Design the sequence.
């Protein structure tokens, strides 16, 4: 039997305040007046393997809000995703996740 | 327009195939003639900056990816041209007999080839949009026949997208 530990709440809060060092990068896809909505959904589905609902949600984010975060993680991985989006003609950038 | 086992059966009229061959051929020529993407906004659009707010990272990303990206556009376009060449030997719309113009051309695409077609049609539309100065979804000029070509490419790209998405 393991006794219930008493969490040190103040310390936990400190830990939450430390950003993850290498996995908080994002691939962002931006709206453009040319690419078709159906095409953007197809790219998100076929490349990222997103469900139809998720791909549609992201496409609407691009269309309505001007951009959407399509992936988050390691910087090198985000650059590969951006390059793949460029292959499909989508306008993608890489950025460090903005502070919440 | 959908097929089985990830294949797509694309049906075009011969006059469409001839025009598409001309457009994609021009696209290949443009890529071959443009040594520096910066000198042509249409080509630059195919290799956008990944770091618009960070010049050093943007330059590094571009040095690692740009030539490969443009080579893949040329490879994709070359595959499309090969498929169109298989589908018919007429390359000049003027040589097409009127009675043949609306006859059907059937092109069967596997999954990889479908992707090459999608990327090529999307890239050619981006180049056309740049040449036409399209900056919003509402930009249209009914008197400019190039807008008709742009709309037609969009119609074909949408159809191919829907067909390719059936098996997802």
Sequence:
């Amino acid at each position: 039997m393991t006794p219930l530990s008493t969490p040190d709440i103040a310390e936990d809060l400190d830990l939450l305040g430390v950003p993850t060092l290498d996995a908080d990068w994002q691939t962002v896809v931006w709206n453009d007046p040319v690419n078709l909505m159906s095409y953007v959904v197809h790219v998100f589905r076929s490349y990222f393997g997103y469900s139809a609902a998720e791909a549609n949600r992201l496409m609407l984010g691009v269309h309505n809000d001007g951009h959407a975060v399509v992936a988050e993680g390691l910087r090198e991985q985000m650059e590969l995703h951006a390059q793949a989006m460029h292959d499909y003609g989508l306008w993608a950038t890489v950025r460090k996740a903005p502070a919440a | 327009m959908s097929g089985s086992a990830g294949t797509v059966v694309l049906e075009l009229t011969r006059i469409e195939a001839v025009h598409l061959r001309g457009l994609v051929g021009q696209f290949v020529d443009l890529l071959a003639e443009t040594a520096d993407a910066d000198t042509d906004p249409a080509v630059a659009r195919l290799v956008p900056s990944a770091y618009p707010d960070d010049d050093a990272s943007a330059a590094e990303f571009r040095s690692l990816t740009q030539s490969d990206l443009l080579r893949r556009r040329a490879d994709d376009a070359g595959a499309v041209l090969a498929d169109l060449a298989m589908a018919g030997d007429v390359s000049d719309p003027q040589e097409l007999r009127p009675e043949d113009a609306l006859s059907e051309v059937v092109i069967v695409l596997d999954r990889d080839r479908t992707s090459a077609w999608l990327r090529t049609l999307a890239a050619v539309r981006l180049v056309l949009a740049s040449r036409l100065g399209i900056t919003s979804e509402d930009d249209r000029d009914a008197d400019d026949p190039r807008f008709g070509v742009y709309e037609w490419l969009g119609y074909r790209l949408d159809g191919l997208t829907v067909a390719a998405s059936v098996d997802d």
